């Protein structure tokens, strides 16, 4: 029986990955986001309009139900990936299977005769493309040494920010053909994931041995972890939760906030939001690349995560206190820089503190997903309560945005409790 050759030390003895690995990883994640995010950005909206004119609320139902999929399946499929024994390794089967399911989902959505079938297609998309992405992220956990994690996280972050923009541009040329609207971005995703799966070798995993058999009860326990046993991972989880809670408070009511500040209606603010979004992509990319590369070069993570939280908080405060449009735009751009820096450096920090890398990396990568998905579900429910505080007929956006600022600063401060990483 062949034996596995995974690196033993999670940080110091891992060999550096090649430039080929890095660029194939960046392109593969670009492809997944192009195929997966384009429906959210435009394609799903078009299909909802076609199938149920005047019922835009159906889009929220579809995306909300779909968002539950990674919560339910993340640790489960991550654990199964950790324990997969095949000649082609642990991660590649999930990339391949996920991509196949992802393509099927796009066909289902493109040809859906009704809203329920469209929703089913989106659930399949979450499951399929989510697993393709999970296989790629788990490969990073398996392979990246500490000295390259920030750089690769920054490059991947840049690629995943650009992908939706490319997807929207493509959609502009394909709106006349519903099938192509979904399948052209999907085809790009298939090709780029296939390149990674075919050209990046992975050790044979058939020789892996596990002390604990996988049962229903042991699988249920994979959804939780003991923070006392893995304190650094727990602090990272909590910091990420707080940052994304603040981020979601900030972004959920952006259109309404801008309309209120500019004294216009929500439809009239669309052009302004588009301009801010374009500037935000550039600023977020700068934060992701700059933070990722510098954190590797200086061998520091925590100070960059703290800085990202403070920068985001500063931008949030500037936005809500801005007396005019220039400062409103400036605050939004500053927020985007902080978001980019956090997303890349915190991802590198997560890989630094990931527990049981050799046996349970997929499981712990699945659990960390809760720190992103839960606040994105809970914060929109909390935000209206904050908006109503002390408001006499007006929405208290000042309190909402300052609360978001406090959350992101707390996220950075909590990360300072991590002891194993500088």
From TrEMBL:
GO terms for molecular function: transmembrane transporter activity. InterPro entries: MFS, MFS_dom, MFS_trans_sf, Na/Gal_symport_CS. It is a multi-pass membrane protein. One of its GO terms (biological process) is sodium ion transport. It is found in: Cell membrane. GO terms for cellular component: plasma membrane. The chain crosses the membrane at residues 21-46, 58-81, 93-112, 118-140, 152-173, 179-200, 241-263, 269-291, 303-322, 328-354, 366-392, 398-416. Its main location: membrane. SUPFAM superfamilies: MFS general substrate transporter. The keyword Transmembrane applies. Residues 24-422 form the Major facilitator superfamily (MFS) profile domain. Pfam families: MFS_1. The keyword Transmembrane applies. Keywords: Membrane, Transmembrane, Transmembrane helix. This is MFS family permease.
């Amino acid at each position: 029986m062949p034996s596995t050759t995974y690196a033993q030390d999670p940080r110091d003895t891992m060999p550096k990955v090649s430039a080929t690995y890095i660029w194939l990883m960046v392109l593969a994640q670009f492809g997944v986001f192009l195929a997966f995010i384009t429906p959210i950005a435009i394609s799903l909206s078009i299909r909802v309009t076609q199938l149920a004119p005047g019922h835009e609320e159906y889009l929220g139902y579809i995306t909300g139900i779909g968002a539950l999929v990674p919560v339910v399946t993340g640790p489960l499929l991550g654990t199964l990936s950790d324990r997969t024994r095949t000649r082609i390794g642990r991660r590649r089967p999930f990339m391949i299977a996920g991509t196949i399911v992802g393509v099927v989902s796009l066909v289902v959505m493109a040809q859906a005769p009704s809203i329920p079938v469209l929703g089913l297609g989106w659930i399949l998309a979450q499951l399929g493309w989510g697993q393709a992405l999970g296989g790629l992220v788990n490969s990073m956990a398996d392979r990246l040494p500490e000295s390259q994690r920030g750089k690769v996280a920054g490059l991947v972050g840049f690629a995943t920010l650009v992908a939706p923009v490319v997807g929207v541009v493509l959609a502009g040329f394909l709106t006349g053909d519903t099938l192509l609207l979904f399948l052209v971005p999907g085809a790009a995703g298939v090709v780029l994931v296939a390149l990674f799966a075919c050209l990046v070798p992975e050790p044979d995993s058939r020789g892996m041995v596990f002390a604990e058999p996988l049962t229903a009860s042991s699988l249920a326990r994979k959804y939780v972890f003991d923070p006392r046993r893995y304190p650094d991972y727990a602090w990272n989880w909590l910091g990420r939760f707080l940052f994304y809670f603040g981020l979601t408070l900030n972004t959920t009511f952006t259109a309404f906030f801008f309309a209120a500040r500019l004294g216009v209606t929500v439809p009239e603010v669309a052009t302004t939001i588009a301009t801010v979004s374009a500037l935000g992509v550039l600023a977020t990319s700068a934060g992701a690349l700059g933070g990722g590369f510098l954190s590797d070069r200086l061998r520091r993570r925590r100070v960059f995560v703290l800085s990202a939280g403070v920068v985001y908080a500063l931008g949030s405060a500037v936005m809500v206190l801005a007396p005019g449009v220039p400062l409103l735009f400036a605050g939004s751009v500053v927020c985007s820089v902080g978001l980019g820096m956090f997303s890349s450096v915190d991802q590198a920090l997560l890989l630094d503190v990931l527990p049981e890398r050799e046996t349970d990396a997929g499981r712990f990568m699945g659990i960390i997903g809760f720190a992103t998905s839960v606040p994105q579900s809970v914060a929109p429910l909390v935000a209206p309560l904050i908006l109503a505080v002390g408001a006499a007929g007006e929405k208290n956006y000042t309190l909402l945005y300052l609360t978001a600022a406090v959350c992101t600063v707390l996220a950075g401060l909590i990360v300072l409790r991590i002891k194993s990483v500088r």
